[in-house]
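User: Let's play a game. I give you a shape written as tokens, and you guess the letters that built it. Ready? Here's round one.
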């Protein structure tokens, strides 16, 4: 296994990154198997580990922050209020992320927090202002803002 080879090479940082990804994968698998509590616990563990790990000098930004992924899992698990908190935490650590704005907007909308939903949808549209506008999240944002 990759984790074992990294550990044997005394590469603690990358060994830890593999462990984080293992926890995240286990969480999504648990959700797919209908084990919602296990899924949430696994993604929370992964997100907390990643928050404590810091970033490696070779990485400008994380491809997909686990805290953001945790928010997505919580949306899938029908926990929008918790999801909103995780997306907001992700945005504090990784500002101006399209997926975090989109997720926060959806979570706020589903949680019935209209002012926050509006704010996040507006931020998403501003972030995507130079795009072709055809992305489903942008279309949903425009539709929400037109009706609210």
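Assistant: Ready! My guess for every position:
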């Amino acid at each position: 296994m990759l984790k074992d080879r990294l550990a044997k090479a005394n590469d603690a940082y990358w060994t830890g990154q593999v462990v984080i990804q293992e926890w995240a994968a286990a969480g999504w698998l648990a959700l797919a198997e209908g084990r919602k509590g296990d899924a949430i616990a696994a993604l929370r563990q992964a997100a907390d580990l990643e928050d404590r790990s810091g970033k490696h000098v070779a990485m400008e930004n994380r491809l997909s922050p686990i805290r953001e992924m945790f928010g997505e899992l919580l949306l899938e698990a029908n926990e929008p209020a918790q999801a909103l908190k995780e997306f907001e935490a992700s945005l504090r650590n990784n500002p101006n992320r399209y997926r975090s704005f989109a997720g926060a907007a959806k979570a706020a909308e589903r949680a019935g927090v209209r002012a926050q939903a509006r704010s996040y949808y507006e931020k998403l549209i501003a972030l995507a202002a130079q795009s072709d506008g055809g992305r489903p999240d942008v279309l949903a944002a425009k539709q929400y803002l037109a009706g609210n």
